[in-house]
TrEMBL record:
GO biological process: cytokinin biosynthetic process
Superkingdom per UniProt: Bacteria
Protein's name in the database: Cytokinin riboside 5'-monophosphate phosphoribohydrolase
EC number of the protein: 3.2.2.n1
Length: 194
């Protein structure tokens, strides 16, 4: 594991723990010699983690769609900034250059990004680990929703392991490094498993 892609709110959030978790994760990445890949913005938790990694002498790679985010929000002092055509190209690039994915607290943008990589993982399009930094219980309702979907027969129980929930950044990184994709499962209960 060399590069970790972090999805995070473009807002700082209402609780100081959210920003604190971005700082802690940023420091932990640098301590472990890991590079940060992220959306290239200078605002919210995105800006916090980028500035933390840069401030500790680490490497930060941004991936920003030129057309959508031209202007003041682009972080101008990254180690490298990829300018891509649109949001689709951005996620493809992030997926291609990263070895693991982590979500910090965030909103729709963060949810969408993390679930794209989980849903591709369940189809075997990639075998890279996906983690959620569950700061101050922010993602507890998401864990409940996943348990509900397993109970309701929409997610095979072995696919619960496709997202690693953890509140401590150091432990989360360790779990991502040790991740083994779940055994191949029949995702579709109506089809015969071959
Ligand atoms: P949200 O959680 O809705 O704030 O969206 C955050 C996620 O969406 C980030 O991980 C980014 O990849 C993307 N995103 C949202 N707003 C921006 C922005 N201003 N600049 C760059 N990326 C953004």
């Amino acid at each position: 594991m060399k590069r970790v892609c972090v999805f995070a709110g473009s807002n700082p959030g209402t609780h100081p723990e959210y920003k604190e978790s971005a700082i802690q994760l940023g420091k932990e990445l640098v301590k472990k010699g890991l590079e940060l890949v992220y959306g290239g913005s200078n605002i919210g938790l995105m800006g916090t983690i980028a500035n933390t990694v840069l401030g500790q002498g680490g490497t930060v790679i941004g991936v920003m769609p030129t057309s959508l985010f031209r202007g003041e929000v682009v972080h101008r002092n990254l180690t490298h900034l990829y300018e891509v055509k649109d949001m689709h190209e951005r996620k493809a690039k992030m997926g291609e250059i990263s070895d693991a994915f982590i979500a910090l607290p965030g909103g729709y943008g963060t949810f969408e990004e993390i679930f794209e990589f989980v849903s591709w993982g369940q189809l075997g399009i990639h075998n890279k680990p996906v983690g959620v930094l569950n700061v101050a219980g922010y993602y507890n309702p998401l864990m409940e929703m996943i348990a509900k979907a397993v109970e309701g027969g929409f997610i095979p129980s072995t696919h619960k392991e496709l997202i690693i929930f953890e509140s401590n950044p150091m432990i989360l990184l360790k779990k991502l490094r040790e991740y083994k994709p779940p055994l191949k499962t029949n995702k579709w209960s109506e089809l015969e498993y071959k």
